[in-house]
Design brief:
six-stranded mixed β-sheet, mainly beta, seven-stranded mixed β-sheet, binds 2-acetamido-2-deoxy-beta-D-glucopyranose, 4% helix, 21 strands, 340 residues, signal
Length: 340
Amino acid sequence: MRFSFAPARFLTLSACVASISAQTSFLYKWSFQDTSIQTTVPTCTRLAINITSFDTTTNSTKGTPPYYMTTYAIDGTPSTTLIGTKESDVSLIVDYPVGTLVLFSVTDANGSPGGTFAPMTVTGQSSLVASRETSHQTNLTAGASTSCIKTPSASKFTITPNVTSNSDLTTCDLLGLAIRGGVSPYTLSLVAATSPSVTNVTLPAGDNVYTYINRAAPGGHLVAAISDSTGEWATGAAIFNTKGTTDTECSGLASSSTHTDLPDLPSSSSSTSSTGSGGSPASTTTATSNTNPPRSGASTSTLSTSTTSSTNPTSAATALRPISLLGSISLILGGLMMFV
Ligand SMILES: *[C@@H]1O[C@H](CO)[C@@H](O)[C@H](O)[C@H]1NC(C)=O
Ligand SMILES: *[C@@H]1O[C@H](CO)[C@@H](O)[C@H](O)[C@H]1NC(C)=O
Ligand SMILES: *[C@@H]1O[C@H](CO)[C@@H](O)[C@H](O)[C@H]1NC(C)=O
Ligand SMILES: *[C@@H]1O[C@H](CO)[C@@H](O)[C@H](O)[C@H]1NC(C)=O
Ligand SMILES: *[C@@H]1O[C@H](CO)[C@@H](O)[C@H](O)[C@H]1NC(C)=O
């Protein structure tokens, strides 16, 4: 089945399948207290985070502590860290190297998402000093150190997209994702920038290649990352600039997964994702599903500006629609949201 999204219409969709339940979007939002953090973020600095009700008029909904931050490090290895056990004390220390492109996504104790902002580039001290020229809110003493940065260990758990990370992905294009290492079953996370939700798809046990039909709204950024059944993240998370038509129905096409004996990656430089000729998956399809990623917002980088029509979380429930599930893919939509 297909989903059609009427223009200028706000739509939410929420469904839970399989063992994960209680994942609900639109309960809470988060933001860095330092509002100058928009396109860059300092490394090795404790960054205070505000968690507020999604409905700032009534405060009627909220997340459930503890809160976790998943940092999708592009062409690197994402990580999930505890950022606060109570709402009044939430903070993050970015420990990725200067120059890393990251997309932040907060999750609460129930796995309910708090949304994403624009991708940001990790900076060190000099950028912080420079940015202070134009901002009173940046703390000069912060970000001075790079001592916290983790040296990534060579990972044998990798994801190789067959479309180059950081390049364009056109509506209805096929994106092949080849997974090596890790412990099956794998979970694919599709994360759009400036979106309130995350789409998780758990592949059937044994499957290691996913073919994703790009139904993301054009004009945004979409991250594809893989984690395994032990919670480890694969190296090589990729980001794409979504392009093309806003008609994202892609009739007749369905995302699918399969098992393929993948050749070893050519060199040890496989810790970064590349064009991945080695990632060309086989054609056998064992399962299909219509996978709609979270929709990106417009060009805004604050979630609050893009949530005007969703003040009542129960409207998400009334918009709930059945989802076609074929094979054994578990499609977990924490919520979908589109702004036109
Ligand atoms: C964060 O919370 C503090 C204290 O409640 C408040 O003063 C500040 O304006 C908030 N900042 C943002 C960006 O929401
Ligand atoms: C909602 O919570 C914020 C703090 O997060 C507070 O400033 C505001 O007064 C509250 N509003 C209501 C209606 O309780
Ligand atoms: C999606 O999957 C990731 C990786 O398993 C997990 O950390 C996250 O909590 C899941 N849900 C959301 C809404 O991000
Ligand atoms: C700057 O950060 C340091 C360390 O976190 C803190 O002790 C200090 O109070 C901060 N200064 C300002 C002006 O926020
Ligand atoms: C990526 O792989 C899929 C199959 O998984 C294939 O249909 C598609 O054409 C490939 N794209 C590129 C650019 O090689």
